[in-house]
Amino acid sequence: MSDTGRQSLTDKVGAAVKPDSEKSTTEHIGDKFKGKSDSAASSVQPESQKSYTQKAGDAFSSNSDQNEPSMTQKAKNALGLGED
């Protein structure tokens, strides 16, 4: 279960596992929108109020405001599945 206003860990993993080349334009736009809104909610929500799964999801996906790519993006790039 996700915290209010947050993307669930299952949704994050599902979006990360599917190769970008297999996603439709709508899926790409949806992923970007969900990622940005989840990142904003993550930044505003205090760590003390996050569930264990949201903390794990935040660590896995990284905050999009940071210049460092997330672990997910690094793995996709290493496998040749990322945009970079």
TrEMBL record:
It comes from the Eukaryota. Pfam families: HSP9_HSP12 (PF04119). Residues 19-37 have a biased composition (Basic and acidic residues). Gene3D superfamilies: 6.10.250.2440. Residues 1-84 are annotated as: Disordered. Residues 1-10, 39-75 have a biased composition (Polar residues). This is Heat shock protein 9/12. The lineage of its organism: Eukaryota, Fungi, Dikarya, Basidiomycota, Agaricomycotina.
